[in-house]
Structure formats: structure tokens, C-alpha cells
Automatic annotation (TrEMBL):
<feature type="domain" description="ERAP1-like C-terminal">
    <location>
        <begin position="578"/>
        <end position="807"/>
    </location>
</feature>
<protein>
    <recommendedName>
        <fullName>Aminopeptidase</fullName>
        <ecNumber>3.4.11.-</ecNumber>
    </recommendedName>
</protein>
<dbReference type="Pfam" id="PF01433">
    <property type="entry name" value="Peptidase_M1"/>
</dbReference>
<keyword id="KW-0031">Aminopeptidase</keyword>
<keyword id="KW-0482">Metalloprotease</keyword>
<dbReference type="GO" id="GO:0005615">
    <property type="term" value="C:extracellular space"/>
</dbReference>
<keyword id="KW-1133">Transmembrane helix</keyword>
<dbReference type="GO" id="GO:0005737">
    <property type="term" value="C:cytoplasm"/>
</dbReference>
<keyword id="KW-0449">Lipoprotein</keyword>
<feature type="binding site">
    <location>
        <position position="344"/>
    </location>
    <ligand>
        <name>Zn(2+)</name>
    </ligand>
</feature>
<dbReference type="Pfam" id="PF17900">
    <property type="entry name" value="Peptidase_M1_N"/>
</dbReference>
<keyword id="KW-0325">Glycoprotein</keyword>
<dbReference type="InterPro" id="IPR045357">
    <property type="entry name" value="Aminopeptidase_N-like_N"/>
</dbReference>
<keyword id="KW-0336">GPI-anchor</keyword>
<keyword id="KW-0735">Signal-anchor</keyword>
<feature type="signal peptide">
    <location>
        <begin position="1"/>
        <end position="27"/>
    </location>
</feature>
<feature type="site" description="Transition state stabilizer">
    <location>
        <position position="430"/>
    </location>
</feature>
Length: 916
């Protein structure tokens, strides 16, 4: 039975809990006339403006706060109930006034705790078109919460070792309701006046610019902010702190850009201000749309207090501290990190903020654009960082990996509950949708796509709420004007085939003279179901030959869905080979018939520079994945990978590295085949170490070279004596360093694998001391040390538990750490699972640990090939909803199928390779 609380608006504010059926809310003394059979608000009323006042005492280390919210509302349907959201707030008073300020009787208010509704029962029937009403609610709440959501507290230690507290917000997706009563749905946009009381030595920041400060009694002050643009509740934000800032004020038009942090880290914010300035102006020009306010703040929050990573609150963007910090000794890789995360959140100021999704079903309209343009606009604002090529090694690879299972969802997907909404923030919303948008960018031509997006912004910004059809309409208009689609095709038809279906296509191609024949099917990384898929897409087919690159990014033709085979003629000169989807502009894999594949591999081994780096990467990724999905011809795979001995470009190596690590993880319990694979990897990767002059970082190198050297260390160091000597040196010098490079992390881990017990014990002490050192104010250095903890293997638990450590990492860092622990250092998987089980059992169900637990369980499941581990992992999953166990079962079955299909063919091929 679900519990609901009902209150009268008099002395009976603390009436007893009432237990009723989940679908019906009952109020004390009356029978409710509405059964809430949906988690969506009934929307008989709609807000038109909020005035929100908060009174805080964070400066005195008092974490309770009081609030008053006045919500102007219009009535859309006759009703005697006003239904909005509220959770965690204690309501102390509710009153309702009509448009001329006269009181309207309120019988009582009540809570539907399952749906997080606050139901105000009115003593009369409110009629539509009778003017505006004002609902005023007094409430109390607290920021002493441990889930890093809603309005919560963080802290830092100042230069004297004194703990200083601050309060910040993180409302996406449905946590505005946990901090103040509101209509907490993404399609409901309105304006806000926000007023915040804090200590005289503290300051408040919010979405809109500060309008004025009033001194109050008791050493406090009231900060009043300008009215915000119309926006949804999850973007409402404020910060109460004693942070300092770096700022630059732009002109024409005026815009104040500031980055805020604890005082001791302010000197690390200059690069983020400059990156923000350059990206914002590039974005405004590209979309022909000015940013809506006169200021935008970036706020750096202590990493361990900010699980969200970053959040695009309109005008007040929040980040993990390490994400936007940049020191003079940091390399270009840190610049890439700052630019892309600032770019992601700033793109949201248009896609997500200016245009809000009508419902969470269309979350991809926010996240897909932000993921795409953090790279593509970042390449315009910061051309020196070569960000476009990083899309192929980042989001494109992530999407293909996430979209290859049987149970993956489509981009547009309807759901209502808090847990299921949270699940929508996945690689499909971010990475797959970015890939599909990027594909349409190339398929229509970037100029036409850009024009369509300008129409999309202009045509919808006044209403401010969108669904996918609005985007399709605008792109359609641009496509017709520029005549870039066949007359028989529409953007709705093409794009809908991608947004409404799960999965990634596999395009099979065979050759008959100059005629190429194509079929399509859904690609699955493992054994497909017995019943064939019915998925089918409109696919833009691109190709390149040495003498014809006209269609290397543009579609040569559109492959229609539900057609058995498509023929297309490509004229080639003697000995030319054709590569399809050569720049990964289309979101699909390509399977060549074997004779075509062998010809491509022969050419790439003879002269790989005859193919673009992106083409080499695409061939590696598709060939390896298709082989692994079927236990395929590994002789051909090894022949292809063999060319990497001469490869010097980052893009092919990054893609090969990811695939090789997956193979390592699948073989982690098979020592014989693992050793064969390691021997092969060392052979192809060792020349890379030599080519880049060994392991030492060099000032001024590009991010790509930094990463290439790190890949080489990871893959080849165990076979190089000089590299191992350098790794041991890195271990010895850790304590004396104040600045760390990407290469240091890889070297440190290799060095520790060959360290004795005494060295490891000393290093544990160094880690513990460094991580707790209050004088180490560089967030990047602390982030490095925290990442490197996993290099200690089982010994790291003397510093921090596996679960606490892994749950605190970002998604990408967690993936690396798990591979290091389970594959490179052979930590028993059971120890990590047991640590997770223990940690979760100590946490309340709404804590950040419980909320992010499934992510970690899924990551661990990728390594499970032993029945005992399966059983243990399933026991942890049982504390979650049934879908968690179902997803784990699917992943484990995929792993077992991989082992059954691939181990013997791979072993035999490797044996033949070394015997040859």
C-alpha cells in the first residue's frame, strides 16, 4: 500500500498518514473526485509565473531553509483541485487568491507520495477564463541530503583548514519538486522571479542577473534577481556560497561570462572563461541566434559532491571542478576536455533551454544536439584542437557499442515514472542521436542542415516547446528550398525511420563487375533472435575510390527500407578498390563480401596512406565487430590489424585500442589465449612507442600525440624493457610531482604491476596523504590521483573501497578503471561485486549510490564469463527493479556466446600467425 499525507489548512497541519490504493488520492473529510492513473499532471491548471523566496543560513552551518512560492495560474478546465508536484518539503501554509487579491477558500491539501503530487482541494469550483489566480505556499526543507540532487550542500576546506559550506541545485530531471512546490514537467515553461536570503559574507547567484541587494537584520542580506526567460523547472538554479570568480564582459551585444570556484582555485578558471567566450560567439553566429540573457556563469563544484558531471541551467551552468579547471602546465588534452564540456552545456542554452522538449520522450532533441555540437562548433571556436575527428573516436564508437543489443530502446521513447525517466539519460539519447543528427547534416549538406536548424530555432522559440515533428518540418523546408532530396522523399520519412526504431543497420555489399549490390539488416553484436528483425531504414550510402571522392560524405543514393536488394553502378579504373561509408558519416556498419574485404586489406597493408585515417578506422571497427559477432575469420582480422605496425594516426589507433581492450576483457579468464593475444598486441603496438620517442611527455604536443603515446604504453609497455624502466621511475617519482600527464597514469599502472610489496605499501601511504592534502588545490592533480588509485589493484581498498571509488568516477573513467582492475590487475570480480553489495546496503534508497548503482552493475556485467560471478551479480541486481536483472542476464548471455563462438577461432588464427 502506498502512503499519502492529507492536511487541513488550519491547526491540523500534522494530521496522520493515510494509506490508500496507489491510484486514488483521498483527503481527510472528503472523497476525492479524481483518480490519478498517470504520473503526468492532470493540467487542469497551468502556471504563468513564479515568485520564489528562500531564506538560508548556510553561512552558519544551518542546513534547514524556509521558502515561500507564489504561483500565478490559469485554469484550463473546471476543477476543484490544483495539482502540482512536491516532495521533501514540509508545507506550513497554503492560500489561494483570485485576480483582484481576494481569498479563495481552500479545504485542505494532500500528498500522493507515489506520484509526488501536491493536491490542493479548493472550496469552490474554479472555472476557466475567469482570470488569474495566485497559489501561495509556505514551506520548510533542508539541504542536508546525500543524493546530490535538488537543493543540496557541498563544502571545501579553505587555506586555514576551515570547512566552508555552500548550497547548490541539480534539478534535472525531476528534482525541482524536492526543493520547492512546482509544476515539474519539461513542457511547462514560464518565468521566475527568485529572491534568496543568505549571510552577509556569502552571495547568491541564480539564472538571471542580480537586480539588487537589501541588507537585513542578523548579518544577512536579500538578493533579488531579474525575471528569467520562460523556462522549465529543471533549469531553475541557484548557488549560495563564498566562491570567487574570473570574468570577462563582451560587447556588441553585452554579455558577462564568469567562472566561479572556491577561492584557492580561481587562478585555474581563465581558460574556461576564454573557451566560453569563443564558443558562445561561434554558436550565436552559426545559428544566427543571440543568447537570451546578459550573463552566463560557470560554477566549479568539488568532484565528489557532483554526480551529475555538468548541468546546463539557463545562465548558471554547473560542472565538476576538474572538468573546467586548467593550469599552465596542463596539456592540450585538458583543453579538449574544457572546450567540449563547456560546448555541450552552452549548446543546451539553445537546444533544451530556448527550445524545451514537450516531454522526456524527446530528450534526444536536447542531448543529441549538445553532443554533436560540442565537437562540431568546438571545431569552429577552437580549430587548433581538431575536434571533428574526435567525434568518430568518441560518440560514434559509444553509440555503436550501446545500440547493438536486443533490448535497446529507440531514440523517441515514452515513459513517465521517476526511475524510468532517469534511464532515458543514456547513450541512445546522447551519442546515437548525435550520430543520426550528424548523418543528416552530411546527407542534406551542412549548409542546408544549418539553414534548417536556424528555421527550427526561429519558428519555435516563441512557443518554446517542441517535439520531433517540429525539427523535421524545419529541415524539410530547408531541404525543399535547396532541392537536396529526391522529390519522392521527405525528412519526416527518413528521420522517422531512425528515431522510431532501435538498433544500428548492417549494410552488406557484394560486387558484380562495376555493379554493387546492397542489402540491409539490423546488426546485433551476438546471436540474433530466431525470428528475423523487421527493422529497416532509409540509409544514405556514401563511398570513395582513389579517383572519385565526390560521394565520400554526401549520399550517392538513399537505400530504401523494406527492399530485398539495391543495385548501384560505380565506375572504377583498373585495380581501384571502393570503400563505403569512408568517413563514418552514416550511422551504419558495412560488411563487404570476402573478396572485396581481402582486396581492401591487401591495399591497406601495402600503402595505408592511400586511405583517409577515418576510412582505416571504419574498416578496422566494422571488420572486427562483424567477426566477433559470428566467431568469424580471424585470419583476415589479424591480417588487417597487422598494418597497424606502420600506423601513426590517432583515429585508427583509438578505434583499434577500444576493440582490442574488449577482446582482452572477454579473454581475461583464459590465460593461454590471453597470452597469445598480448603477444600479438605488443608486436603491432611496439613501433608506435618508438615512433613517438618513447614514453616521455613533451610540452606543446597535441592532444592526439598525448593519447597515442598513452595507447602505446598501455598496449606495448610490458614487452619493452626501456618502457618498464620508465614505468618504475614513474612509481618512484609520484610523491615528488605536483603535475601529472596522461602518460604518467599509464606508466604508473605498469610500474606498479612490477613493484614489490614494500613499494606498494609506500605508494598506498602516498595516495592517502595526497588525496587528503588540503594544500593540494589543483583539481586536475587530485583527479589524476583519484583515477590512479585503481593502479593499486586489491591494495587500493586500504585507501578506499572498490564500490565507493567506482561510483564516484565519471562514466569514461569508470570504464577505464574496471578494465584496469579486472583485466590488467586480475582483481577477482567477486571482490568488486561484494564491495558494491556492502556499500548499497548501507545507503538509503534515494542516495546517489543507489541511483547510480545500476550503471556500475552493467559495467561489471560486461566482464562476467564465470557462472559463480553471474550468480553473485544477480544477487546485487535483485535489490533493483526487474529490468536491471533482465539487462544483466542479456549481457552475460552475450559474453558467454562470445566465448563459445570466438575463443577457438581466435586461438587457432593467432597460432597460425606466429607459426607463419
Amino acid at each position: 500500500m502506498k502512503k499519502f499525507r492529507a492536511f487541513t489548512c488550519s491547526a491540523l497541519l500534522l494530521s496522520a498518514l493515510l494509506a490508500v490504493t496507489p491510484s486514488v488520492v483521498q483527503a481527510r473529510g472528503i472523497v476525492s473526485r479524481r483518480a490519478f492513473d498517470s504520473y503526468r499532471l492532470p493540467n487542469t491548471t497551468v502556471p504563468t509565473h513564479y515568485t520564489l523566496r528562500l531564506d538560508t543560513d548556510i553561512h552558519r552551518e544551518i542546513f534547514d531553509y524556509t521558502g515561500n512560492v507564489q504561483i500565478r495560474i490559469n485554469v484550463l478546465e473546471a476543477t476543484d483541485q490544483i495539482v502540482l508536484h512536491s516532495s521533501r518539503s514540509e508545507i506550513t501554509h497554503v492560500q489561494l487568491r483570485n485576480g483582484v487579491g481576494l481569498s479563495v477558500p481552500v479545504k485542505n491539501f494532500e500528498f500522493d507520495e507515489d506520484k509526488e503530487f501536491l493536491v490542493v482541494n479548493v472550496g469552490t469550483t474554479l472555472q476557466p477564463n475567469t482570470g488569474t489566480y495566485t497559489l501561495e505556499i509556505d514551506f520548510t526543507n533542508s539541504i542536508a541530503r546525500n543524493d546530490q540532487a535538488g537543493f543540496y550542500r557541498s563544502s571545501y576546506d579553505d587555506e586555514n583548514g576551515v570547512r566552508r559550506y555552500l548550497g547548490l541545485t541539480q534539478f534535472e530531471s525531476v528534482d525541482a519538486r524536492t526543493s520547492f512546490p512546482c509544476y515539474d514537467e519539461p513542457g511547462i515553461k514560464t518565468t521566475y522571479d527568485i529572491l534568496i536570503v543568505c549571510g552577509i559574507d556569502y552571495h547568491a547567484r541564480s539564472n538571471a542577473p542580480l537586480r539588487g541587494i537589501q541588507l537585513l537584520e542578523g548579518g544577512k542580506k536579500l538578493s533579488t534577481f531579474a525575471t528569467t526567460p520562460r523556462m522549465q523547472t529543471y533549469l531553475v538554479a541557484w548557488l549560495v556560497s563564498d566562491f570567487k570568480y574570473e570574468r570577462e564582459v563582451l560587447t556588441d551585444p553585452q554579455l558577462a561570462i564568469a567562472s566561479w570556484s572556491k577561492p584557492s582555485s580561481v587562478h585555474l578558471l581563465s581558460y574556461s572563461v576564454d573557451a566560453s567566450k569563443r564558443f558562445m560567439r561561434a554558436m550565436e553566429e552559426y545559428f544566427d541566434q543571440l543568447y537570451s540573457m546578459s550573463k552566463i556563469d560557470n560554477v566549479a563544484i568539488k568532484d565528489e559532491d557532483y554526480a551529475a558531471g555538468a548541468m546546463e541551467n539557463w545562465g548558471l551552468v554547473t560542472y565538476k571542478e576538474s572538468a573546467i579547471s586548467y593550469g599552465p602546465e596542463d596539456g592540450e588534452q585538458r583543453q579538449v576536455g574544457v572546450v567540449t564540456i563547456v560546448g555541450h552545456e552552452f549548446t543546451h542554452q539553445f537546444f533544451g533551454n530556448l527550445l524545451a522538449p514537450k516531454w522526456w520522450s524527446y530528450l534526444w532533441l536536447n542531448e543529441g544536439f549538445a553532443r554533436l555540437y560540442q565537437y562540431y562548433l568546438g571545431a569552429i571556436s577552437h580549430p587548433e584542437l581538431q575536434l571533428r575527428e574526435r567525434f568518430v573516436t568518441g560518440p560514434f564508437q559509444t553509440a555503436l557499442r550501446a545500440d547493438n543489443s536486443l533490448t535497446v530502446r529507440p531514440m523517441t521513447y515514452y515513459t513517465e515514472t521517476r526511475p524510468s525517466i532517469s534511464r532515458l539519460f543514456d547513450n541512445i539519447a546522447y551519442d546515437k542521436s548525435a550520430c543520426v543528427l550528424r548523418m543528416m547534416n552530411y546527407a542534406l549538406g551542412e549548409r542546408t542542415f544549418q539553414k534548417g536548424l536556424r528555421y527550427y530555432l526561429q519558428q519555435n522559440k516563441e512557443r518554446g516547446v517542441v517535439e520531433e515533428s517540429n525539427l523535421f518540418d524545419s529541415l524539410e523546408q530547408a531541404a525543399k528550398e535547396d532541392a537536396v532530396l529526391p522529390i519522392s522523399l521527405s525528412v519526416h520519412e527518413i528521420f522517422g525511420s531512425w528515431s522510431h526504431q532501435p538498433g544500428v543497420p548492417l549494410v552488406k555489399v557484394r560486387r558484380d563487375g562495376n555493379e554493387y549490390l546492397f542489402t540491409q539488416e539490423r546488426y546485433i553484436a551476438n546471436t540474433p533472435p530466431e525470428e528475423p528483425f523487421e527493422n529497416s531504414w532509409w540509409i544514405p550510402i556514401s563511398f570513395s575510390t582513389p579517383s572519385n571522392n565526390a560521394f565520400e560524405k554526401l549520399p550517392a543514393f538513399w537505400m530504401p527500407p523494406n527492399v530485398s536488394e539495391v543495385a548501384y553502378t560505380i565506375e572504377t579504373v583498373q585495380d581501384e578498390v571502393v570503400s563505403f561509408n569512408p568517413h563514418s558519416t552514416g550511422y551504419y556498419r558495412v560488411e563487404y563480401e570476402e573478396s572485396m574485404l581481402r582486396e581492401l586489406i591487401e591495399r591497406i597493408n601495402k600503402d595505408h596512406t592511400g586511405f583517409e585515417p577515418a576510412t582505416r578506422a571504419r574498416l578496422i571497427d566494422d571488420t572486427l565487430n562483424i567477426a566477433q559477432s559470428r566467431g568469424g575469420n580471424y585470419d583476415v582480422v589479424l591480417q588487417l590489424l597487422n598494418y597497424l605496425q606502420r600506423e601513426t594516426d590517432y583515429v585508427p589507433w583509438a578505434v583499434a585500442y577500444e576493440n582490442l581492450r574488449h577482446m582482452q576483457s572477454m579473454l581475461r579468464t583464459n590465460e593461454a589465449v590471453s597470452q597469445l593475444l598480448e603477444r600479438f598486441i605488443e608486436k603491432i603496438a611496439s613501433p608506435l612507442l618508438e615512433r613517438y620517442g618513447g614514453v616521455d611527455h613533451r610540452t606543446g604536443e597535441s592532444a592526439s600525440v598525448e593519447e597515442l603515446r598513452t595507447i602505446a604504453i598501455d598496449l606495448a609497455c610490458s614487452g619493452s624493457q626501456s618502457c618498464n624502466d620508465d614505468a618504475q621511475s614513474a612509481v618512484r617519482s609520484l610523491a615528488s610531482k605536483k603535475h601529472y600527464t596522461m602518460e604518467d597514469n599509464a606508466l604508473l599502472c605498469h610500474g606498479l604491476q612490477h613493484s614489490n610489496a614494500e613499494q606498494r605499501k609506500a605508494l598506498q601511504a602516498q595516495f592517502s596523504q595526497a588525496l587528503s592534502d588540503k594544500n593540494l588545490d589543483n583539481p586536475s592533480a587530485k583527479h589524476f590521483l583519484h583515477q590512479s588509485l585503481s593502479c593499486l589493484g586489491e591494495d587500493m581498498t586500504k585507501v578506499q573501497s572498490f564500490a565507493k571509488y567506482l561510483l564516484a568516477l565519471s562514466d569514461s573513467d569508470r570504464t577505464k578503471a574496471l578494465h584496469r582492475l579486472l583485466v590488467e590487475l586480475n582483481v577477482p570480480l567477486a571482490e568488486i561485486v561484494q564491495s558494491l553489495q556492502s556499500e548499497l546496503s548501507q545507503r538509503r534508497s534515494n542516495s546517489v549510490y543507489y541511483k547510480h548503482g545500476p550503471k556500475l552493475i552493467f559495467e561489471i556485467a560486461r566482464y562476467v564469463t564465470d557462472p559463480a560471478d553471474v550468480q553473485l551479480l544477480s544477487s546485487v541486481a535483485s535489490s533493483y527493479d526487474s529490468w536491471v536483472a533482465s539487462e544483466i542476464e542479456q549481457q552475460v548471455n552475450a559474453n558467454l556466446n562470445w566465448v563459445e563462438q570466438n575463443v577457438e577461432p581466435l586461438k587457432n588464427a593467432l597460432t597460425r600467425y606466429f607459426d607463419a
